[in-house]
Amino acid sequence: MKKTAVAVCTVLAVLGGFVLVLFVGTGLSRPAPAGVCTPGTALAVGDVPDGQIAGYSGEQLANAATIMRVGAERGMDAWGQTIGVMTAMGESGLRVLDRGDAAGPDSRGLFQQRDNGAWGTYADRMDPARSAAMFFDALNKIEGWRDLQPTLAANRVQRNADPLHYADYWDAAVQVVTALSETDTTDDRAPGHRYDLGPVKPHTQALAEEVGARFDLAEIGGYRDSAVDAGGHPAGLAVDFMTHDDTATGDAIVSYLIAHADRLSVDYIIWRQAIWRTAEADKGWQPMADRGSDTANHLDHPHVNVTPTPSANAETGPLDCLAATTAGPAGPATGQWVAPVDGPITSPYGPRLLFGSSFHAGTDFGAACGTPIYAAADGQVTYAGGPHPRLGLTGHVIVIDHGDGIQTSYNHMYASDLLTRPGQHVTAGQLIAVVGNDGNSTNCHLHFAVYVNGEHTDPEPFMATQGTRLG
């Protein structure tokens, strides 16, 4: 069983003249596949077709339809519904099993839920609808589950010994969910709309729904014909995310919008009396004149304008989104280099000016404990164990020799989460460990370092020369 603690890290970043607090690791990391889908949109279920879909038929498809319906009733979007179907595929093959296995002889039902007091009665576990409801209720309690790879989100609930067990079932789950879905959504007010913004453009609504769901916002302003920005609120191209005195959430929203500006069709953002334009991103934040009040100066809400025409990379709907995703790690062909973990950079290489005069000889990535760590390139494992005194690494450490004087190291994992051993040959993208919080560490994260001829070097430009962008 892997550790399932989920941590929230905070880092300081300077954008223009502003210091922003960014929350990463659970809710706001660089998204896994979940990040490309719009939260808040559930799929309605149509008739169960005859024949097979991805090898499933009859009772299995009926059970998948039940999982989807229950997911929508429990507030799940299309992403969550598909995770539910994927999980049941991996646990029971979409059948209500009245038996367990060697690891869990008391497991029962679609989700193989245990008789341990956490999963209701025997009748609950054997009932497709009730067992699905228990699964979705548990999933919804996992902080940042939409930012996890689907297999990891499922594993947070199921606690399978292999966190990647469910990845093999994602493509089939997408096929089944797509085939069982109607074109309409389950929301009676408007398709997939949680927020009533008035007559705004569809891509304006989509941005509001995604950001609102991600940050659990209660109030978003949309269309206002009385607003003075003719190309903004009156045109249905602007939204206000009302954060009031919660500056940290406002900062986090702004950071997310900037990171996804192209996909979300962001034209410009106004926040804390400054403006950031996508077309002038290299100029950073530019100060604005004092307009008097906190609201006029956008101190109590980030304002976002979208482009009149959606970006070519904007999503068109939940089914299109699901069809474009993959649940597994992007393991490239042998000989290439890959990012070692899916997560944002929380502490770069170099002097730590905010933490005394220490030098940080690697790059830290914020990621939840249990997130997979991959070998950055082909090589041979030369060390896998406790602290590495010569390299100054604490916690549990893996070192890989890639030849030509190049080594990489990975640390802060727990002992039980080292999935390789000294002498083993690994390939780029191969799973070697999962993120932990061991050693000199205050939050779940990966410390990744690169050494050339025995000397540490900045991983970001090094990996860039190998054709791989970090963070």
UniProtKB/TrEMBL annotation:
GO terms for molecular function: metalloendopeptidase activity. Pfam families: Peptidase_M23, VldE. Residues 198-298 form the ARB-07466-like C-terminal domain. Residues 359-459 form the M23ase beta-sheet core domain. It comes from the Bacteria. Keywords: Hydrolase. The keyword Ribosomal protein does not apply. The keyword Oxidoreductase does not apply. PANTHER family: MUREIN HYDROLASE ACTIVATOR ENVC, PEPTIDASE-RELATED. This is Murein DD-endopeptidase MepM/ murein hydrolase activator NlpD.
